[in-house]
Design a protein that fits this description.
single chain; about 300 residues; alpha/beta; Nucleotidyltransferase, domain 5; five-stranded mixed beta sheet; 10 helices; about 40% helix
Length: about 300
Amino acid sequence: MKYSIGIDIGGTTIGTGIVNQNGDLIQQVIVDSDTTDRERMFDSVVHAVETLLSHSSIPFEQVYSIGAGVPGKIDHKNGIAVFQNNLPWQNFPFVERLQEVFPNKEIVIDNDVYMAAYAEWKAANLTDETFVYVTISTGISCSIISAGEFFRGAGFSGELGLIPVYTPHGDEEVGRLEQHASGQAIEKYGRQLMDDSSLTAKKVFEKYYDGDKKASELMSHITISIAHGLYAIVSLIDPHKIVIGGSVAAKNRILLHLVEEKLADLLIDEQKHILSNLEISTHDNNQGIIGAGLRAFDKEN
């Protein structure tokens, strides 16, 4: 059995894990990110991998490759982290630098949402179909895989959070999806609606589950916006399957039912096949690590 290391890099934490060729996450370690400057951020990544290896029962000699998912714009062919708004890297030669620390290992880098999408695509066992992975977390984004190939556009495709959607809350009726339905948006509008500056997105959901009317109103607004975002995807590319992940969705699976109800009202008959092919991820929010590890095996993708 071959193994790889998957790395899911974020502005708050760095998740690392040992992944086998079947997509099983054998062991994992999470460390804090240090975004003070580019070198300290890179040192955080190295520390995460070394900590994982020090706790691993898998010898490093059996690790075939390393894959890393990084937010923002990535030059995956040349191994460069081009631009990230939450990390101190611009045109950072990530693969070259990591190769210096871990020589003789295949190293792959790509956008973090693309890496997560790859794990979901592999788990869905698809081939020629069109697949979309949507992440709802601090922000909102997506990745498209069609016939086994990523749709990349000119290099910045998948920014679902930037599209305009109908928003029945906030200052304007139309706004960017991410500004009105992400984890940050849930927190922002929850605090405004309930006049409580201590509210977090988690507490808003807790209030919703407790039957709070204002939380229910907010959840209705948020899921309308998400449904409009998904409807844009369905209308543009008519995918065979959509999987929703990210921390907000993974921790609150009720979102799927709420969004399905709103989406059903928008779809015409020829589009309704997506309702039976719309799912919440079952990867327990580890798809970024798993996908990065699997991509490291399948470098040509």
